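Sorry to interrupt, but I need a hand with the structure work. Could you write out one complete protein record for me, on any chain you like? Could you add the entry underneath, on a fresh line?
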Amino acid sequence: MVAASFWTLFRQFFPPASKWSFNDMPDLTGKVAIVTGGNVGIGKETCKQLLIKGCTVWLAARSQSKAEQAIAELKEETGKEALFLELDLSDLKAVKESAEKFKRLSPTLHMLICNAGVMAPPIEQLTAQGHDLTFGVNVLGHFLFIQKLLPLLKTTSNSLTDTRIVWVASSGQYYFNDLPVNYDNLKDTPSRTKLGVQKSYTQSKFITVMLGIYMGKILAEDQDSNVICIHLDPGNIQSDLYRRLPSLLVTIMEWLVLKPTSMGAVTQLFAATAPEASQYNGKYLRPWARLGEPHPLTKDETEQKKMWDYCMAVVKEYE
């Protein structure tokens, strides 16, 4: 098992050259996409490539000023203008309002790319509802956003054309081995503080994969729609995600393993747009746009359902 784990991580950190590129994306004229965290890093590059292909792109972010700056830069680079959607993933009430606003403004949605995330925020930071901030943003906020927009994704799909949920996880999920999940770690408790910010991050990505697998099963059972869910690791990428880590560590990472920001958009754009990706419902993709195997423990069906039911219970009042 140790050797297998080492080899899995080695392939994540040093993947072979990509066989798929942005040039392989189909024309997306008439398609509508939401990209969470689209104002910086991988999210911004994702917006850029979608715009180039003619997609109507809603850039979802918490800060309007930062989003508008990104939109202006994207317009200068592509000649196309993204649309701003205010979204604060750390507040479930705000997530609900954002989704409802989008449904009033757009009659269709083809791609929901859940790209935003946080890593290692100060341990004292919590969501508006009192959850661990990393879990709240990376998991709960996106979970509710997906649930609120799922009816629109379903009505946009048809027997010939699927719609897609792309949920960005991380190779960090391989470093989490604490099953069953201690649910006390998800709220403001001493055990959460003891867990620490780094393990909180790997826990959130482990949970993302569990929920992605389970969501794929639920969507596959729905015969009246054609929505698929793909979760993935975008790769070890130079991005704003590492802003809270020591600068020396980031410099070493950039030298050893971090790839250009543009590469980070490859796998999620493949998942969102490639016709061949339609066969990957409930599957995990690794760099670059390759089918992979997640942490074996994420496949525990009992734990998947338990986490799904927990998240559904938390977001119920905001549905």
Remarks:
- The mean pLDDT is 91.
